[in-house]
Amino acid sequence: MEIETRMATADDLDFASDVLTSAFTKDPWMRWTVDSDGYERRVKKLFLITLEEIGLPFGEIWLSQAEDGMHSVAVWRDCDIRLPSTTLETFQGAKVELLGSRYCEAERAETEVADMLPTGRFAYLIALGTSPSGQHRGLGKAVLTKVLERCDTERIGLFLETSSESNIEFYEPFGFSVRSSRKVSSGGPSVWAMFRAENTQL
Question: Does pTM top 0.90 for this prediction?
Fold first, then answer.
């Protein structure tokens, strides 16, 4: 199977948000932080605004696709680049609307895991998702490898958070290791923080 991997353009963002939504439908963090009323619609809009306001202008979005279409998306940004206040205000406003009745719990959960972020310069893997029909075909590996190559070129470490324990096994072969973990209070999800040092050998 031939896999094409490329950077996204503005024309790709709507479909890329569909891919991420399909990948994160059952994600424990999403289920905890997003209102269940119109859940998938809310999740898609959250991903779309993340791609439009953060991923495309201040980071990179990588896509991988096979003969039957796009299946995997990776979104990351260099945390050494400060986001403008207008971007933060736009994103915060969207969260208030789209998280709905879960907004307060979501803010509380984010506060509880905030100290899991590393210090210094690092790249933050905001999201990596593969559609259900694209899994186990090497598409996720292909799109992640592009991110790792770029981070190694720029000599920066890469950080991610996951609330799915099965993701730990996916990321470990790429040089990521669990840095810390946390159980969100009041019945919230577990969160694992993973870090990959620069120039880790694949």
Answer: yes
